[in-house]
Every structure is written in structure tokens, then in C-alpha cells.
Design a protein that fits this description.
Oligomer: single chain
Distance between the termini: 31 Å
Low-confidence stretches: none
Shape: globular
Helix content: 25-40%
Strand content: 15-25%
Bound molecules: flavin-adenine dinucleotide
CATH topology: FAD/NAD(P)-binding domain
Mean pLDDT: 95
Number of strands: 26
Radius of gyration: 22 Å
Largest sheet: 7 strands, mixed
Structural class: alpha+beta
CATH class: Alpha Beta
CATH architecture: 3-Layer(bba) Sandwich
């Protein structure tokens, strides 16, 4: 007999752990949480500034994209968390909500109940912000939010001084004021990484009604007619089955969630046919609309002296700005990173991991304390791509493409950010550190050269969304209650449901989506 649960949640990342925590508040609910990755996490996960050591290890799915036509056919490395906590266990902890106009646009496009005013109580429910710089910040929620300034490194202060020198306004809290430069707010507690693992998942497990199975990969949703009745999964080398009385909630992230639907016969009929999978329910939008914030590392430079010993998350400050006046939300986000792994040896490691699938040695030794990087991320990209099945074998990674650079305006705006970064490097504030630009470097001068350099270097911000988007049109995969359209007892609660990526880092909004999914379920919506 298969095991029977009230709920099965697939994936313990930002969305899945949030759903598990809220559903487990119902003491009589019996919940199974399946996680494809492991649960035995190294100490580096807890130390905020050691995030760079987690990339390319066993905790990273380390996808390689399909060749990107807009980038001269180059493939792009894409990190994603594969462990308890998912992306939340490897992320940089920057806590940035979507801007009001981002969410109002979702509602405007047909997602009734998703305006910023509707979502704000769910952001607040998740937060316990320790400072009072944002009058709308939540207090008493599971996630402790601190001001990066409290542990800030001196180099971060220099970045802010440089922004002021160029006339950018200072901002107290990006979640209160959208445009300007300032310290980030971070998902950290007592100097350690927060993340949904500590704030949502461990407390949920302590309640006793959640069974967590790690290294358990969901391979197929079990459907009877138009109803989802359970999940087939691989664990301990065996195919196992769990059935549900109430619902399955898929939270595998924007790459794996569409893949699981496709493996289950839910998706575009032609793609299913190509892989010999019978159509259970045709939904042409599964895997479409996949996108990310494109990001390039640059300019980057060397300071005369090494930076101070690390503390905090090493990505403490940023500048949110518009490429043109008159935009309702910033489309540019430039962050500063110091003590980051970089250079040829780091990229050799990336290639080794992508080609062999084997974890590489720690990248900590590749960190040069003299190096600082500006990370310009385009937070309102226009390009859209897809996730497709590469094989009907569930252990084979999906084929992914964000179609970076497909819209030329995306590249133009990244060039604008690199120019802003160069202006920052030329300020008196940075001159005092003896900063010398290494890349793009003195030979890259004209707009055409900068464009070519961006096309050669742009990559992923690891903010994957949109591949099972919410809506009411033909291409929508879930409805505004996050139910898979046309299938009973099946919801999605992760980054894949976003109709369009917000002008903000994505984790905070995905936790909010998890909060909303649980509320819909508990209130019978
Ligand atoms: C290196 C890095 C830095 C980042 N920094 C920031 C930041 O500072 N701020 C920010 O807001 N965002 C950041 N992000 C993005 C953020 O982490 C993600 O947007 C977020 O975690 C995605 O949430 P999710 O629920 O969609 O998926 P995830 O958090 O990725 O969770 C999906 C989970 O499902 C599991 N899973 C997948 N398929 C299956 C299956 N078939 N069976 C069982 N389990 C499965 C995965 O292993 C994973 O644990 C960062 C991401 C990375 C990779």
C-alpha cells in the first residue's frame, strides 16, 4: 500500500518550506515534503560571507543553458540550490520586496487579488524586521531581517560615498523607497544565515506532522482523470509512491517544476509527443515565459590594499536606478561584491563542473581580497525564454534558455549600468582606495566595444521565474489561486508562477507566494 498523506509538497526551497510551515500549523494535517537534494549541510551555509564556497558543489544544480542566440551562441552557467532550503540555503540573503507597480501589473494582467495592496500583508506575515526604517515592515514573522549596515564592511561604505559624490540619493530601506543607493536589508539572524531552512522548515519539522524525505526526487505526478492523487518519487534507488487526500503542491523551482509537469503529461502536446509521453492534460504554457535578471560582472577592479576581513554577506550595498527618467520602477540594480571568487581559475572550475557533473573543490582559495566587483543586474528584462524536456528520463536536466540578449534593449541597458559602474570607480571615494579597473579594462572604450564586451560576459543573476505562469489566458499554467488549470488538487508555489519578474531580487516575493498558497489552501480557495 502506498503511504497516504493530506498534502505532499515537492521541493523544500523558498516556496516549499514556507508552505510546509503554514500547513503544519494545522495539527491534524499529515504532510510529506520531498527534497531532491541532501539535508546534511556544511558549516559554510550558515556563515553569510561564505556563500561563494557553495557554488558548484553538491548543493548546486549547476545548470548549463542552451546556446543563447543573443549571446553569439554562448551557454550560460545557472546556479540553483539543491538541498534542504533550496535556493534559500545558498542565496546572498538580500531581502528586497517587489515594487508596488510590479505586482499591480500582475493584477492588471488578470491575476485578481495580486495587487501590491493584496500582497503586502503576506510580506509582512513573513518578516521580523529588526530596524524601523520601513514603516510597512513586518514584525514577529519567521524571517529575521537586519540592516546590512550593522555588520557592514568599509568597502561598502566607499561605494555609497561614491554614489553620493555622483549625486544619487541615499535610501534607508529599498523596501520603502525604490530609487537610490543604500544598505541592503538581509535575511540574517545573530550574524548567521537565516533562510527558510532555519525560519520555516526546522520549526515546521519540530511540530511533528511533517515528514521530510531528502534525496527523494519526484519523478511523476499521479493523475486519475483530471485529479492529482499523488506522486511517484525516486529514493534509495527505488521508485516509491505517496498518495494524497487533499493536495499536491509543486515547489521545485522554475526549472524543475515545468519539467515535472511535462514528465506527468501536462504541457504542450507536440513536446510531449516528441518524448513519447501521453498527453494527460494539454497546457501549452508549461515551460514558456522562463526568464531571469541578466547580470554581468563589471566593472571589476583591484584595490591597492586588501579589503577588511569579511563580515556580513559581502553584498551589502546597492544602487537601484532607472535607465531613463519616467519609469515607475527601477530597471537597473548595481550591487557591490568584495572578496568574491573570480578569474580564470574560477571559470575553469565552472567548466569542469558543467562538463563532468562532479562537485569541485572549494572555491574559497580563489578569492582575491584586493578585488571588488560591481554586479549590474537588469531587473526589468524584456527577453523571454523557455524550459523544455531534454529527455523523458527524469534524472536528465531540462533544457533551459532565458534567451538572454534576445531583446537588444536589454543589452543597451546593461551597457548603461557598466558605464555607471565606471563613473563610480572614477570618484574620489574609490580613488582613495587606489582602485584600478581590470575589466572591461582600458582597451574597451566605445559603445560598440562595450556592447560586444557585455554580450561576451553577461550571465545569470540566478533569479529564475515565469515558466508556469499565473493568469487567466490560454498560456497561463496556474490560475490566480495557484491551481494548475484543468487539474484538481494540484497547485504550484514557487518562482515559476510569476507572470513577470519584479524589479527586485526574487526570494522575498517567492516566500510571499508560499504564504499566499498556504492561505488559499487553508481557507478553501
Ligand atoms: C547563488 C544564489 C544567490 C542568490 N541570491 C539571492 C538574494 O540575495 N536575494 C534574493 O532575493 N534571491 C537570491 N537568489 C534567488 C533565490 O534564491 C531564488 O529565487 C529562490 O530560492 C527560488 O525559490 P523557489 O522556491 O522557486 O525554488 P528553490 O528555492 O530553488 O527550491 C526548489 C527546491 O526544490 C527541489 N527540487 C527540485 N526538483 C525536485 C523534485 N523533482 N523532487 C524533489 N525536490 C525537488 C530543489 O532541490 C530545491 O531544494 C539567489 C540564488 C542563488 C542560486
Amino acid at each position: 500500500m502506498p503511504d497516504m498523506y493530506d498534502f505532499v509538497i515537492i521541493g523544500s526551497g523558498a516556496g516549499g518550506s514556507t508552505v510546509a510551515y503554514r500547513l503544519s500549523e494545522q495539527a491534524d494535517a499529515k504532510i510529506l515534503l520531498l527534497e531532491a537534494g541532501g539535508g546534511d549541510l556544511p558549516e559554510a551555509v550558515s556563515v553569510p560571507w561564505r556563500w561563494n564556497e557553495l557554488l558548484l558543489t553538491d548543493l548546486d544544480w549547476a545548470y548549463n543553458s542552451a546556446p543563447q542566440p543573443g549571446l553569439n551562441g554562448r551557454q550560460v552557467y545557472s546556479a540553483a540550490g539543491r538541498c534542504t532550503g533550496g535556493g534559500s540555503a545558498v542565496y546572498h540573503m538580500m531581502h528586497v520586496r517587489a515594487k508596488p507597480a510590479d505586482l499591480d501589473a500582475w493584477a492588471y494582467a488578470g491575476c485578481a487579488g495580486w495587487s501590491f495592496a493584496d500582497c503586502l500583508p503576506f510580506y509582512q506575515r513573513s518578516e521580523n524586521q529588526l530596524d524601523d526604517l520601513n514603516p510597512t515592515a513586518g514584525k514577529g514573522g519567521p524571517m529575521t531581517i537586519v540592516n546590512a549596515k550593522d555588520t557592514g564592511n568599509p568597502t561598502s561604505q566607499v561605494f555609497l560615498d561614491a554614489c553620493v559624490e555622483l549625486g544619487y540619493p541615499l535610501v534607508d530601506d529599498f523596501n520603502a523607497t525604490a530609487f537610490g543607493a543604500g544598505w541592503h536589508h538581509l535575511d540574517m539572524k545573530d550574524g548567521r544565515r537565516g533562510g527558510v531552512l532555519t525560519s520555516y522548515l526546522l520549526p515546521a519539522l519540530a511540530r511533528g506532522n511533517v515528514t521530510l524525505k531528502t534525496r527523494a526526487r519526484a519523478t511523476r505526478l499521479l493523475l486519475e482523470g483530471d485529479r492529482c492523487v499523488g506522486v511517484e518519487y525516486l529514493a534509495d534507488g527505488q521508485t516509491q509512491t505517496a498518495r494524497v487526500e487533499r493536495e499536491v503542491i509543486v515547489c521545485g523551482g522554475a526549472m524543475e517544476t515545468p519539467k515535472l509537469l511535462l514528465l506527468s503529461g501536462i504541457g504542450p502536446a507536440d513536446q510531449l509527443g516528441q518524448h513519447g509521453i501521453a498527453v494527460a492534460h494539454e497546457l501549452p504554457g508549461v515551460g514558456e515565459n522562463f526568464h531571469d535578471h541578466p547580470l554581468v560582472i563589471g566593472p571589476f577592479g583591484r584595490m591597492a590594499e586588501p579589503g577588511a576581513d569579511p563580515r556580513g554577506n559581502m553584498t551589502e550595498v546597492g544602487l537601484f536606478w532607472g535607465s531613463e527618467p519616467g519609469l515607475p520602477v527601477p530597471d537597473l540594480e548595481i550591487c557591490l561584491v568584495h572578496r568574491a571568487p573570480f578569474g580564470d581559475a574560477f571559470f575553469a572550475n565552472v567548466v569542469q563542473r558543467l562538463q563532468t557533473g562532479q562537485p569541485v573543490a572549494s572555491v574559497a582559495q580563489l578569492v582575491d581580497p584586493h578585488v571588488i566587483l560591481t554586479l549590474p543586474g537588469l531587473v526589468r528584462p524584456l527577453s523571454r525564454g523557455w524550459v523544455r524536456m531534454a529527455s523523458a528520463d527524469p534524472t536528465v536536466p531540462p533544457s533551459i534558455s532565458c534567451n538572454f540578449g534576445d531583446e537588444p534593449a536589454d543589452i543597451d541597458r546593461i551597457v548603461t549600468m557598466v558605464k555607471i559602474g565606471r563613473d563610480l570607480y572614477r570618484t574620489k571615494a574609490f580613488a582613495a582606495l587606489g582602485l584600478v579597473e581590470v575589466g572591461p579594462g582600458p582597451d574597451i572604450v566605445t559603445d560598440a566595444q562595450l556592447r560586444a564586451w557585455v554580450i561576451d560576459n553577461v550571465g545569470s543573476y540566478y533569479h529564475f521565474v515565469g515558466s508556469c505562469r499565473m493568469g487567466i489566458d490560454r498560456m497561463a499554467v496556474v490560475d490566480p489561486r495557484l491551481k494548475v488549470r484543468g487539474i484538481e488538487s494540484l497547485r504550484i508555489a514557487d518562482g515559476s508562477v510569476m507572470p513577470a519578474i519584479p524589479a527586485a531580487n526574487t526570494h522575498t516575493t517567492i516566500v510571499m507566494i508560499g504564504e499566499r498558497a498556504a492561505e488559499f489552501i487553508k481557507t478553501g480557495m
